[in-house]
Write a structure and sequence with these properties.
Strand content: 15-25%
Shape: globular
Strand order of the largest sheet: 5-4-1-3-2-13
Number of domains: 2
Order of helices and strands: EHHEEHHEHEHEHEHEEEHEEEEHHEEEH
Helix content: 25-40%
Number of strands: 17
Number of helices: 12
Distance between the termini: 59 Å
Structural class: alpha/beta
Length: 359
């Protein structure tokens, strides 16, 4: 049986209150201060992961008690030591590979420095996250009848590992692509890589409001709070929000009935997944980064499969093939954790057509 570990951390105080109800009665500042001093611990065990091949896996989710802002506010060395400690806790439970969830995948050059601090291989899970984000985005665009060859793709967070890989895979199919990031030199590098793969009309910018030009938007920044507001989106647009915490404000789902927002990287696990802690997802469903770690455990490939920012298209295709081999699949199209029924998508499309006719 394959055994894995996976690191998680609270995205906000509400997440903390799932474990500690007292957190609801304390100020966010007090909760944040307390978390900094709390050591990592095993949050839950995952059982019942059974591949269609018959292989089995189990895992241990280890909590790293830090909020998103801690990962940039605290010295990197201190953050890495806490992450390394969490990896060793998982290893002590029997894990032979550890996945780095959410912001634990960012410090130390995307996990590279961590490899020299622990005796267990780690993976960010970003390769399978890219695979599922691309698959979900293309399906959503098809359902919204968006013609890619006439449309504009916008990638928010284009210089990160997921944003870069999504750009490389999707941009060549679009008429125009806008890459949004904080550092121009990195954006230029991604632009050149896309052009080598046949992409055309590639533009770079630091202006977040360029999201308004996108018919299809991939949102995968490392911001600690929502960036995309209702007024920023084009009518009829598809937005794949891969970021955790979310890049897209929940106000969008309430105020923009003419825009299709989908959750990126939400995967159905084969078998009968059981955990005694609610991670905020429906039963049997996990994020793609978690699924990548499970897949590698089922394969007994205990190696740092995805590390750093240089994810190759070949890596994405390989992990996608392994996922299919073991029976992992997209958990349908979901928006803010809720399944999107066909009639809901049709209603969004009708609203977008009405808006277009009105203008």
């Amino acid at each position: 049986m394959g055994v894995f570990g996976f690191l998680v951390h609270p995205l906000n105080v509400n997440d903390v209150s799932r474990k500690y109800r007292l957190a609801q009665k304390l100020s966010p500042r007090v909760v944040a201060s307390a978390l900094r001093r709390r050591p990592p611990f095993v949050l839950t065990e995952a059982k019942g992961i059974v591949s269609v091949t018959g292989a089995e896996a189990r895992g241990y989710f280890v909590a790293v008690p830090l909020l998103p802002f801690h990962f940039s506010a605290l010295p990197e060395e201190k953050v890495l030591k806490k992450i390394a400690r969490a990896c060793r806790i998982a290893q002590k439970e029997g894990a032979r590979i550890v996945g780095l969830g959410a912001f634990t995948a960012l410090p130390g050059e995307g996990g590279r420095k961590l490899l020299s601090m622990v005796d267990v291989p780690v993976t960010t899970g970003n390769s399978y996250t890219v695979a599922t984000a691309v698959e979900g985005t293309l399906e959503a665009a098809r359902l919204m009848e968006i013609k890619l060859s006439r449309s504009t793709l916008v990638v928010l967070g284009a210089t990160g590992s997921i944003g870069r890989a999504c750009s490389l895979m999707l941009a060549p199919s679009f008429h125009r692509t806008i890459l949004i990031g904080r550092r121009e030199e990195y954006l230029l590098k991604v632009k050149e890589e896309i052009e080598k793969r046949g992409g055309r009309n590639i533009f770079i910018t630091r202006d977040l409001e360029s999201v308004k030009e996108g018919d299809v938007v991939i949102a995968v920044s490392s911001a600690s709070e929502a960036l995309i507001e209702p007024s920023w989106l084009k009518s009829g647009a598809v937005v794949c929000d891969v970021a955790r915490p979310r890049d897209v404000s929940e106000r969008v789902s309430k105020e923009r009935k003419d825009v299709l927002v989908i959750d990126g990287g939400v995967v159905a696990v084969p078998g009968n997944l059981e955990m005694d802690f609610n991670l905020g997802l429906p039963k049997g469903i996990v994020l793609a980064c978690m699924a990548e770690t499970m897949i590698l455990a089922l394969e007994e490939r205990y190696e740092p499969f995805t590390i750093g920012k240089e994810i190759t298209v070949e890596q994405v295709e390989e992990i996608k093939a392994l996922a299919e081999k073991h029976g992992f699949s997209l958990a349908g199209l979901r928006s803010f954790e809720k399944l999107l029924p066909p009639e809901k998508i049709e209603e969004i499309k009708r609203q977008a057509r009405f808006m277009a006719a009105s203008n």
